[in-house]
Write a structure and sequence with these properties.
Two copies of one chain form a homodimer.
Chain A (H helix, E strand, L loop, with lengths): L11 H4 L1 H12 L8 E3 L6 E3 L9 E9 L11 H17 L4 E12 L4 H17 L4 E9 L4 E10 L16 E5 L4 H10 L7 H8 L7 H7 L4 E4 L4 H12 L2 E4 L5 H11 L1 H10 L6 E5 L9 E8 L3 E4 L2 E3 L10
Parallel strand pairs in A: 4-5, 9-12
Antiparallel strand pairs in A: 1-2, 2-3, 3-6, 4-6, 7-10, 7-11, 8-10, 9-11, 12-13
Helix pairs in contact in A: 3-4, 5-6, 5-10, 9-10
C-alpha cells in the first residue's frame, strides 16, 4: 500500500529511495556553495577540486551496513562485515577512476555488543585497508538502543591528476566492458538463505566478502574510459544508471555472460543463475564504457555496446531495471 | 556489574569506550600504511598530508547521532538534529585549525520514518552548511530495523597551508584560553529534562543547536596556538585530554568562569550551574593553548595556564575527569 504523496505522515517506505533522494537533493544543492565541487551526490562518489583550477582532486564517498538488513550475524562474522563495508566503499572510489587513500569508520552499537565482535570487525577492516594501501584514519563509537548495530564508512581517494570518470560520459559507439565477476555475491546470498552453503563455496565467500577489482578503476581511467560505475545493485540496474546519466542506451549481449551463468548453473539452475548475473547486487565489479577501438585494460571484457536511445537491452530486448531499492520503492 | 577482562562474551558496556578504543587502535594502526598520514585516530580529526612533503593537508573527521541516545524526538526537530550533527563535526575540523570544505551524510532509518522528518533534517544540515560555506557533497540512505534512526556525518577540512594544531603541543608556561560559551548546552539538557524549557531559552536553544566558533579555529592556528580541542565532553574532561596528550598540567582558574556560572545560576542554582560550566558536554566551544604573551585572537579569553605535572586543576585543586563516556565506562 502506497501513501498519498504529500500526506503529512508519509513514510520513507511509502516513498521509496529514489523519490526520497529527489526531494532531498534540492534542499542540499547549493547549500554551502559548490566552489571546488566537480560532482556532487548522484555519482559513485563526490569529487572535490582540491587544487584550485585543477580538476584533479579528492574523491569522497560514504556507505553504511546495518545488521539484519545488510548482514545477518548467523551468516557473517564481524571480520566479514568489516571487510565488506570497506570494500564496497573503496569500489565507489575506484569507480571514479581514483586510488583509495583513507577510510573513516563509525560504529553505532547496542551496549550488549560483544567486544570480540568489535575487534573482529577491526581485523576485517584492517585486512582490506592493508590490501588497498588505504589506512583507517579516523572513526567514532556511539552507543545505540538495543537491537541496533550499524557500521558506516567514508572512503577518500585521490585522482592523482586523472579526470574523474562519471556515469554521464558514455557515447553511442562506445563499447561496454566489465572487470570482475558477476552474480557470485547474489548466488551466495541465495545459497545461504536456502541453507545450501556447500553448493558453491566461492559464491558464499564472495557474498561475505566482495572483492572489487580496485586497481582496475584507475587503469580504466588511464585507458580513456568515458563512463564507469561499480555494480552494487546489479548489472541491469547499474547499467541503467549509466544509460540515464549519459542519455544513451546500454545494449548488452548474453554471449559474453554465458560463462558467468554457467559457473552458477550447477548450484542454482539456469534461471536463477541468469538472474544473479543480470540483477544480483553486492558484487562491486566495475562496468565501464570505452571508445570503440580503445585498448581495454587487462581484466576488462566486452559485454555490449552503447547506442542511441535509452534504457538497457539484452540481445535487443528491453530490460526492466531489476535490482535493489533500500526501501522497496 | 563489570565483566571479567578477557571473558569471551564481554560486552562494550562492560569495557567502556576508552578501553575499547585502546584495543581497537592497535588493530587498525599501520594497516594500509600511514604514508601521508600526519595524525590518525585520537585527535579531534585526522590529517592527511595531501601534497607530498607538505604538512599542509586534508583534515577528516566523523561523528554520529543516534535517536534516543543523542537526541529525543520530543525535544529536537529533524532540523535541530541536522544542524547539531553538522556543527559538532565542523567543530572537530576547526579544532585542528582547519577550514571546513565538505560534509558527507549517512542516514540509517526505520521504514516508518516520516518523509517530513528527513526533509527537515536536510534543511538543518543545509543551514549549517550554508553558514560554514561547506557543501554536503555526498551521502547514503539505508533502511534499518524498527526503532533505529542514526545520522552519521563526515566532515572534511583544509589547513590552507597551516600546521595542524594537535592536542599534544601544549607547553608549560602557555596560557589556556576558550572561545565560545560554556555550559549552555548542558544547562539546556537539564532544563528540558526537568520540563523547565522556559527557564533559560538560550541554553535550551544551544542544547538543540550548538554554535561552535568555527572561524576561531584557523584564527587560533594563525595566532600560534600550541594545542587545541573542541569541548564536546566538558571542560574538565577535554582539558584533561590536552594535559594527557601534551604531558602537562592544565591549571584552570574559577575567576574567569564566574560570568559563565552566573549566567546559568538563576535557572539552575549555583551548584548545577558550576557543574554545567565545568563538566557540561555538547558545547563545542574551542579550548586552545598559546605561548605566554601571544596576542590572543578576538573571541578567546584566558581561563588558566599550562604548568608542569599532569591532570587538570581548578584553583590549584586536582579535578577528576568528569564528563561523558558513551558506554558509561
Amino acid at each position: 500500500v502506497r501513501g498519498v504523496p504529500g500526506e503529512p505522515r508519509q513514510t520513507v517506505a511509502d516513498l521509496g529511495e529514489d523519490d526520497l533522494l529527489a526531494q532531498v537533493f534540492p534542499i542540499l544543492a547549493g547549500a554551502g556553495g559548490t566552489t571546488g565541487l566537480v560532482t556532487g551526490p548522484g555519482d559513485d562518489a563526490a569529487v572535490l577540486a582540491w587544487a584550485a583550477g585543477d580538476v584533479a582532486g579528492l574523491v569522497a564517498t560514504t556507505d553504511a551496513m546495518v545488521r539484519d538488513r545488510d548482514w545477518l550475524d548467523a551468516w557473517s562474522s564481524g571480520a566479514d562485515v568489516g571487510a565488506k563495508v570497506a570494500a564496497q566503499n573503496l569500489a565507489d572510489v575506484a569507480a571514479m577512476g581514483a586510488r583509495p587513500v583513507a577510510l573513516l569508520v563509525t560504529l553505532v552499537m547496542e551496549a550488549a555488543t560483544p567486544v570480540g565482535w568489535v575487534l573482529d570487525l577491526a581485523h576485517g577492516l584492517a585486512e582490506v585497508a592493508r590490501s588497498a594501501t588505504c589506512p583507517v584514519i579516523g572513526g567514532d563509537l556511539s552507543s545505540a538502543p538495543d537491537g541496533t548495530l550499524v557500521v558506516s564508512v567514508t572512503a577518500l581517494g585521490s585522482l592523482d591528476g586523472r579526470r574523474p570518470v562519471l556515469r554521464s560520459g558514455a557515447e553511442p559507439g562506445d563499447v561496454v566492458a566489465v572487470a570482475g565477476t558477476l552474480g557470485l555475491a547474489a548466488a551466495g546470498w541465495r545459497l545461504l538463505h536456502a541453507g545450501r552453503e556447500d553448493a558453491h563455496t566461492e559464491a558464499v565467500a564472495r557474498q561475505r566478502r566482495p572483492r572489487p577489482p580496485l586497481d582496475r578503476g584507475p587503469a580504466a581511467a588511464d585507458a580513456g574510459a568515458t563512463a564507469m560505475v561499480d555494480l552494487s545493485d546489479g548489472l541491469l540496474r547499474d547499467a541503467g544508471r549509466v544509460a540515464r546519466a549519459s542519455g544513451v542506451r546500454v545494449a548488452l549481449r548474453s554471449d559474453p555472460l554465458a560463462d558467468d551463468v554457467a559457473r552458477l548453473s550447477g548450484a542454482l539452475g539456469d534461471e536463477q543463475a541468469r538472474d544473479c548475473v543480470l540483477a544480483g547486487g553486492e558484487e562491486h565489479s566495475l562496468l565501464a564504457t570505452f571508445p570503440a577501438g580503445a585498448a581495454l585494460p587487462h581484466g576488462f571484457r566486452i559485454v555490449g555496446e552503447v547506442t542511441g536511445g535509452a534504457g538497457v537491452t539484452l540481445d535487443g530486448v528491453t530490460q526492466s531495471a531489476r535490482g535493489w531499492d533500500h526501501f522497496g520503492g
